[in-house]
Amino acid sequence: MNPSHDTERTAALAGAASIAVETVTGTRWPVRLAEALRDLDATWQESAEVCADVAWQARATGNSAVILLTPEHVTAPGPGPGAVVSRTYRHLYLSALRYDFRCRSIEILLNQVPLSVLDADPYSWALYAFARLGQSRSDGLAVMEQVLSGTSDHPKTLHVLLHGVWLGGLLPGRADTLVALVDRLPDGGDGDPIAQFRKASALRALGHYRQAHAAIERALELLPPGQQAVHADLVREHTLITAAFDLTRLAPQGRKPDSR
Fold first, then answer.
1. Please, what's the b/e burial string for 76-98 (b: 16 or more CB within 10 A of its CB; e: otherwise)?
2. Is residue 200 predicted with pLDDT exceeding 90?
3. What is the chain's Cα-based Rg?
């Protein structure tokens, strides 16, 4: 592996994202991003990394990909000269639906995508798993395992799965699955505020309140400034951990709080 080539590639992908972000309030930012990724012949991993972040920023400005693209951009044929463009639109549109928790919409759209297209794009498979997991459908766990067997622990893909398990509050073994997914991230998610947030939620569910408290405090320290909506989610989790700890401690015959 050539380090200088990797650096150049990273810079090129950052440039592609910048093209979209700089025009994110306009109507052509998805087209510009798709063209930039096509010119780079981006892999599915690179597309996922760029599209997930840009889709989030576009949503924050009130100009979501769901406004500018259509369901047909997801279900259109993928193979051929326009494969990268089609995949970019698919990643953008489905990521926007994911951020809006529209699990059923994701499932319906991906059920219309040929298996050959999905098999070439594990990130879209992960989004399908998210859709099933987010509805607390246990068969989503099987889809998740299928994704994990072929992605080599790609971080953005792991985050999609984490998001789905976190959202699926009625899934069997949910808390343990969350912890296991976080552990698969680079450095066990230690430097990742969202991973620490998910882990804190899982530890709270397991009754490990001190560990949960430490995880959410780390998440708050790691979160970059300016992300008010995410900060509010983290503060809410902090409050839930404290409330759960207090209730357990005050219950006359309840389980003693975990001292770990």
1. bebeeeebbbbbbbbbbbbbbbb
2. yes
3. 19
Taken in order 239, 240, 242, 247, is the CA torsion positive or negative? positive
pLDDT in the model for residue 250: 83
User: In the numeric block, which tokens belong to residue 227?
Assistant: 């992300």
What's the mean per-residue pLDDT of the chain? 93
Q: Give the C-alpha separation, 75 to 156, whole Å.
A: 22
Residue 227 DSSP label: -
**pLDDT digit string, tens, across residues 48-92:** 999 999 999 999 999 999 999 999 999 976 555 589 999 999 999
Residue keyed to tokens 């490990």: 208
- As given in the structure block, the two tokens for residue 181 are 């997914």
In degrees and rounded to multiples of 5, residue 108 shows phi and psi of -60, -45
What DSSP state is assigned to residue 255?
P
Q: What single DSSP character describes residue 189? A: G
Half-sphere exposure of 228 (CA within 13 A, CB side): 1
* Nearest residue to 51 (alpha-carbon basis) of 83, 77, 90: 90
